[in-house]
């Protein structure tokens, strides 16, 4: 081996090292932004960093994390679900009415709605439809159904659900344990199983996957059904916390879920998503959304803007890191 | 016969047929009562959807992932700005319109700045921008109770022989937009970028400039729409633009523009806007509840897009 070629080998390995570092940094970015938000909260109000404080601040983190995971499945297949928010609202209304009064019918309705999600996946694939428009239309359908199920705010969560969401484990607040569990389970299923690879591949290179003999129809159906499943879980968790429902209760979740996936390192195309990142993104948003801003004495008028600004800052940081990757 | 056949292959004809069908169904229900008034009302309401729809159409035509989600916030802010500048004073109408236009164009320019500088998908860029705009609007328009100048409100509601003047002006505007799309370098560049951004760049299209112009145009149209809405409904409010997020995207797609980009259709925007407005009128006439109305609207949108079918992405 000549000295010149040795030199190139050394150079490429150094480059590879830099690349790996940038990639690692990029992978850590969601965690870093969460840490940053936590630090800011700790600095502004040290008393919030306690068992009770976290239980309170992360109150709504579980449904947000579940809705974010639902959106993440859809995004893995290069689609976008603009109806997840109203779907969560619909599930909430069913949970607070049918699931309490007639549990069997309630379960059938919820399973049926997951079935509708699966059918939507099939429809979008078979007719080659733009998912944005189909789900935009569906958002009206779910909202309409929610109003029909529960014309005015009310209803009551089933007792077992209330008991579950009010669970107080020792030392670590329930939302944190739940978020960890959700993240790990989905991470294992999507990132570590062979069919999980196929599912992500359907977003990464559908043509290649199709030629390798995998059914793209099936992957799309599975991804949408999973989105439906996590949407149902999100709606139920939400009602377990709020105890009663309202047809508009989930409307904000559509945008929160998309933002959570992107904050967590996911990308709109290419099947590049990260379940743990998505959960961290959801936690960051849940914390940044109100506790942080309240501690910073930001008037309510500007809280929405602060959310937008946080998104922009994180994305800007990501661009800086990505630039080094090239 | 052949002309009928060639007409049926036009993607925009279906939206007009749909609008006609819905109109006939409503008239059949009322027994012919209010047929003309319904068209007048539909035209005046469709105008607002058409204006933002055309802006959204140019953006969507840029290719997959391009969409302007900031329109509702943009419309809300521009309506407040217009009302504040006009201050109920007839002599300030032109200035108020100009301010709304500038406000909208600035929003559009910021959108593109975010897309370009942060290299983030337009969906997230316009979404984050809309959060910020919404806050500015809430803070700026707080307690805003300024009525539009009487002259402006009258103008926005002005009809000649049952035809809203605003609708006539908007038809002229859409003809201009169609010419810009099909016959001018700007429109051809937008189509080229939508078909293949790299090929367009290699062919010498200034991709960055065209995208910047398109987002600015969409923003400016949102701004002018906000001012007109405030005039028509005699007052600005934060939520005035909320329904135009879905409406602007829906009319573009139902009207036969490809979501994959590179293929746009201006007449279809009119047909689809009339279809949506008449659909709402029909459901209201039938006296269905809010829940059923939403449910049917959603199902019909999904049904129409399924029937129209998706085109293979041009790649």
TrEMBL record, chain A:
Residues annotated as transmembrane: 24-43, 49-70, 82-99, 105-124, 131-151, 171-190, 221-241, 253-269, 276-298, 304-321
UniProt xrefs under InterPro entries: ABC_transp_permease
Broad class of where this protein is predominantly found: membrane
A GO molecular-function annotation: transmembrane transporter activity
Recorded topology in the membrane: Multi-pass membrane protein
Taxonomic source organism: Rhizobium loti (Mesorhizobium loti)
Protein name: Monosaccharide ABC transporter membrane protein (CUT2 family)
Any one annotated GO CC term: plasma membrane
Keyword annotations: Cell membrane, Membrane, Transmembrane, Transmembrane helix
Localization annotation: Cell membrane
TrEMBL record, chain B:
InterPro entries: ABC_transp_permease
Transmembrane region(s): 12-35, 41-62, 92-115, 122-140, 160-181, 212-232, 244-262, 269-288, 294-314
Membrane association type: Multi-pass membrane protein
Keywords: Cell membrane, Membrane, Transmembrane, Transmembrane helix
Subcellular localization, as worded in the UniProt entry: Cell membrane
GO CC annotations, alphabetized: plasma membrane
GO molecular function, one term: transmembrane transporter activity
Family matches, as CDD domains: TM_PBP1_transp_AraH_like
Pfam family, one: BPD_transp_2
Protein's name in the database: Monosaccharide ABC transporter membrane protein (CUT2 family)
């Amino acid at each position: 081996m000549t000295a010149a070629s040795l030199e190139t080998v050394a150079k490429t390995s150094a480059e590879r090292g830099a690349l790996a570092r940038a990639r690692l940094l990029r992978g850590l970015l969601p965690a870093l932004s969460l840490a940053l938000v936590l630090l800011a909260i700790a600095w502004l109000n040290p008393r919030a960093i306690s068992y009770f404080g976290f239980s309170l601040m992360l109150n709504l983190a579980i449904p947000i994390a579940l809705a974010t995971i639902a959106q993440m499945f859809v995004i893995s297949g290069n689609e976008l679900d603009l109806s997840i928010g109203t779907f969560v609202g619909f599930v909430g209304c069913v949970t607070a009415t049918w699931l309490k009064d007639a549990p069997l019918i309630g379960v059938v309705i919820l399973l049926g709605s997951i079935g509708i999600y699966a059918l939507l996946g099939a429809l979008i694939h078979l007719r080659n439809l733009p998912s944005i428009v189909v789900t935009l239309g569906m958002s009206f359908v779910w909202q309409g159904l929610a109003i029909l199920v529960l014309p005015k705010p009310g209803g009551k969560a089933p007792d077992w659900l209330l008991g579950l969401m009010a669970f107080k484990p020792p030392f670590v607040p329930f939302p944190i344990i739940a978020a960890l569990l959700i993240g790990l389970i989905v991470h294992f299923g999507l990132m570590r199983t062979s069919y999980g690879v196929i599912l992500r591949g359907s977003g990464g290179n559908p043509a290649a996957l199709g030629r390798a003999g995998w059914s793209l129809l099936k992957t799309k159906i599975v991804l949408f059904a999973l989105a439906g499943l996590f949407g149902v879980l999100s709606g139920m968790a939400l009602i377990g916390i709020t105890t009663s429902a309202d047809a508009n209760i989930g409307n904000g979740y559509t945008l929160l879920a998309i933002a959570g996936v992107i904050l967590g390192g996911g990308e709109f195309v290419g099947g590049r998503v990260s379940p743990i990142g998505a959960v961290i993104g959801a936690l960051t948003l849940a914390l940044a959304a109100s506790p942080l801003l309240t501690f910073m004495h930001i008037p309510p008028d500007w809280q929405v803007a602060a959310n937008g600004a946080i998104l922009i800052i994180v994305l800007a940081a990501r661009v800086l890191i990505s630039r080094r990757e090239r | 016969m052949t002309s009928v056949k060639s007409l049926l292959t036009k993607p925009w004809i279906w939206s007009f047929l749909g609008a006609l069908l819905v109109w006939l169904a409503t008239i059949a229900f009322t027994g012919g009562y209010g047929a003309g008034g319904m068209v007048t009302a539909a035209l005046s309401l469709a105008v607002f959807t058409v204006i933002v729809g055309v802006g959204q159409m140019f953006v969507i035509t840029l290719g997959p992932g391009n969409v302007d989600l900031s329109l509702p916030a943009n419309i809300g802010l521009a309506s407040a700005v217009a009302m504040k500048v006009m201050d109920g004073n007839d002599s300030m109408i032109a200035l108020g319109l100009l301010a709304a236009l500038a406000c909208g164009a600035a929003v559009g320019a910021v959108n593109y700045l975010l897309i370009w500088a942060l290299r983030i998908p337009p969906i997230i860029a316009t979404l984050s921008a809309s959060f910020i705009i919404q806050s500015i609007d809430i803070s700026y328009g707080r307690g805003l109770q300024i009525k539009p100048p009487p002259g402006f409100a009258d103008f926005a509601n002005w009809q000649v022989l049952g035809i809203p003047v605003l609708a006539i002006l908007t038809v002229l505007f859409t003809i201009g937009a169609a010419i810009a799309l099909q016959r001018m370098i700007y429109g051809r560049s937008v189509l080229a970028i939508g078909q293949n951004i790299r090929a367009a760049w290699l062919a010498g299209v200034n991709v960055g400039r065209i995208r910047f112009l398109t987002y600015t145009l969409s923003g400016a149209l949102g701004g002018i729409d906000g001012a007109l809405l405030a005039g028509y409904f005699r007052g600005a409010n934060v939520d005035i633009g909320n329904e135009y997020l879905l409406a602007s995207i829906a009319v573009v797609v139902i009207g036969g523009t490809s979501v994959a980009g590179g293929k746009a259709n201006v007449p279809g925007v009119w047909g689809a806007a009339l279809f949506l407005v008449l659909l709402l009128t029909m459901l209201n006439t039938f006296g269905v509840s809010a829940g059923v109305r939403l449910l049917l609207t959603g199902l019909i949108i999904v049904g129409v897009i399924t029937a129209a079918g998706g085109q293979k992405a041009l790649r």
